[in-house]
Amino acid sequence: MRFISLFILSVFMFGCVTVPEYLKYPEQYESYGSNIRAVNYGSSVKIEYKSPSILETEASDDAKLRRVKETGEVYIPQGGFVYLNIHSSTIGAADTQYWEVIVEDMQGNELARRQGEPTVAYYTIEHGMTFWHNLIVTPVDQEVKGNFKVFVNDLLLKRRSEFIVTLTK
């Protein structure tokens, strides 16, 4: 009986430690025509990048859909936008005030930096679990030439994630 109890306990403990596939993030993925490679996942985050050409195409498509003339009212930074998608099991940890995005070229020169402001996250229920989500949009006002790095600092847990963005379009 003791052996069976230990067996069941070990199976239960291992099952709780194993991360389900739907909670894992890929090491490499594509985002709007750019390849993104995760060098280090310090927290549950994912980044996306939209280049100025992608943003211009989206603005043009939107103007056509809405049947309006394109105006200079659309803000498109020289280096595009980096989007930080935050996923957390608690509402507090998904608050953007505890997150910072730093964009650097491959030589370590800072191109952009943004720390989030206090916000209320939204939630989804997946596989019976509640997840909290939030978003930080970081404009890159300097032109991006070639590949670049994105660092995401989780200021609450004192962890850093690092990504390399490879421009393909």
Write the layout of secondary structure elements.
Layout: H1 2-17, E1 28-31, E2 34-40, E3 45-50, H2 52-66, E4 81-88, E5 99-105, E6 110-115, E7 122-126, E8 129-139, E9 148-154, E10 159-167
Antiparallel strand pairs: 1-2, 2-10, 3-4, 4-8, 5-6, 5-9, 7-8, 9-10
Task: Give a short overview.
This protein is of the alpha+beta class and 169 residues long. Helix content is 18%, strand content 41%.
Folded structure, characterized:
With 169 residues, the protein is an alpha+beta fold. It has one domain. The strands form 2 sheets. The protein has a 6-stranded antiparallel sheet, with no helix packed on it. A 4-stranded antiparallel sheet has the order 3-4-8-7. β1 and β2 form a beta hairpin.
The computed structural class is: alpha+beta
Strand percent estimate: 35-45%
Please give the order of strands in the largest beta sheet: 1-2-10-9-5-6
Compute the average pLDDT.
87
Largest beta sheet, briefly? 6 strands, antiparallel
Our count of domains comes out at 1
Unreliable spans are: 13-19
Question: Care to count the β-strands?
Answer: 10
| Termini gap | 63 Å
Give the count of helical stretches.
2
Q: What is the N-to-C succession of helices and strands?
A: HEEEHEEEEEEE
Shape: globular
Tags for this model:
4-stranded antiparallel beta sheet; 169 residues; 18% helix
